């Protein structure tokens, strides 16, 4: 089968699209013909091998898994002996740790859900990581009707889902993003937009009941000024900081502790993939209540270019690789 692989850590220049052996499902796994996969910062971390804190999991000196990619959608072609929920021919979506930028992949049954017929493979491929993270972030923040919610990084993969999910709960949503994404976040349900290149998030004083921070590049001391007393900060991102060891992931550890001293509730979200959240996201997409923002679609042969596009900056929404 064709797959996008790398044998060493590095930039998109280390990626190759070539023939590799097709995987075989274990007892609890499903073999899927991948129809579409998506790109995100998590995949970039697996390619570069940074921050170093992830190396014990993905491979100390070289990648344990050569095929890139995690979130995907496709058609089941075979199942392991212990699989009970899926059969060949079923359309599924979710995540895998075996790599999804390939014509075939295997994934544990627990990381998959049925893809509703109303949802395209491209749409289904976007939610396994980013959509799940956004749903759990909005839930962790306790977002409810009538609240004022700020989403920082609203035009990105997680942020574009968070805006919609907060709006679905009848909250008033302020989106923080660059000017180029103004129309996108407005179309997703944002009531107002803050252009971070012209105005800082605390410029208008304490206004927000919940802040979902998908960027992670602002200090807690600044964010607390935008929260009402007793407000909640949900920390999702933190990947834009320099440093080879943590690259900002320390925010997920430090912020909840620091929140005690600034009298604000602080929650850190590391997504738990699979399960009922995938089913919920599928239901919302099928009903037309949740629409993945997909600005660009690449072919599998263009996978290295897809990664270069992600690495250049902050693409709007989710970038997809259509595979077959």
From TrEMBL:
Coiled-coil features, chain-numbered ranges: none
CDD domains to which the protein is assigned, alphabetical: MDR1 (cd08267)
Matching Gene3D superfamilies: Medium-chain alcohol dehydrogenases, catalytic domain, NAD(P)-binding Rossmann-like Domain
Alphabetical list of Pfam families matching this protein: ADH_N, ADH_zinc_N_2
Domain of life: Bacteria
Residue ranges constituting the Enoyl reductase (ER) domain according to the UniProt record: 10-321
Record-linked InterPro entries: ADH-like_N (IPR013154), Chloroplast_QOR (IPR052733), ER (IPR020843), GroES-like_sf (IPR011032), NAD(P)-bd_dom_sf (IPR036291)
SMART domains, alphabetized: PKS_ER
Protein name: NAD(P)-dependent alcohol dehydrogenase
């Amino acid at each position: 089968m064709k797959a996008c692989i790398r044998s060493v850590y590095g930039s998109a220049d280390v990626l190759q699209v070539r023939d590799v052996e097709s995987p075989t499902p274990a007892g609890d796994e499903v073999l899927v013909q991948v129809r579409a996969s998506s790109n995100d910062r998590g995949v970039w971390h697996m390619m570069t091998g940074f921050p170093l804190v992830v190396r014990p999991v993905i491979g100390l000196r070289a990648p344990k898994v050569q095929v890139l990619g995690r979130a995907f959608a496709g058609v089941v072609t075979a199942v392991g002996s212990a699989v009970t929920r899926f059969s060949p021919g079923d359309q599924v979506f979710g995540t895998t740790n075996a790599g999804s930028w390939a014509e075939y992949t295997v994934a544990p049954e627990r990381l998959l859900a049925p893809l509703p017929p109303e949802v395209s493979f491209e749409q289904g491929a976007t939610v396994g990581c980013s959509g799940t993270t956004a749903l759990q972030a909005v839930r962790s923040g306790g977002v409810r009707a009538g609240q004022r919610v700020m989403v920082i990084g609203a035009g990105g993969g997680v942020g574009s889902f968070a805006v919609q999910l907060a709006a679905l709960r009848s909250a008033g949503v302020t989106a923080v993003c660059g000017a180029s994404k103004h129309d996108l976040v407005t179309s997703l349900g944002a009531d107002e937009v803050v252009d971070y290149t012209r105005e800082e998030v605390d410029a208008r004083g304490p206004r927000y009941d919940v802040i979902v921070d998908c960027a992670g590049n602002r200090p807690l001391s600044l964010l607390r000024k935008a929260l009402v007393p007793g407000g909640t900060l949900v920390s999702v991102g933190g990947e834009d900081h320099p440093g080879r060891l943590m690259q900002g992931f320390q925010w997920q550890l430090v912020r909840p502790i620091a929140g005690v001293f600034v009298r604000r509730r602080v929650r850190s979200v590391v997504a738990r993939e699979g399960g009922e959240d995938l089913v919920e996201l599928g239901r919302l997409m099928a009903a037309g209540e949740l629409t993945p923002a997909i600005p660009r679609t690449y072919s599998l042969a263009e996978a290295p270019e897809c990664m270069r596009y992600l690495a250049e900056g902050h693409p709007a929404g989710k970038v997809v690789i259509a595979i077959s």
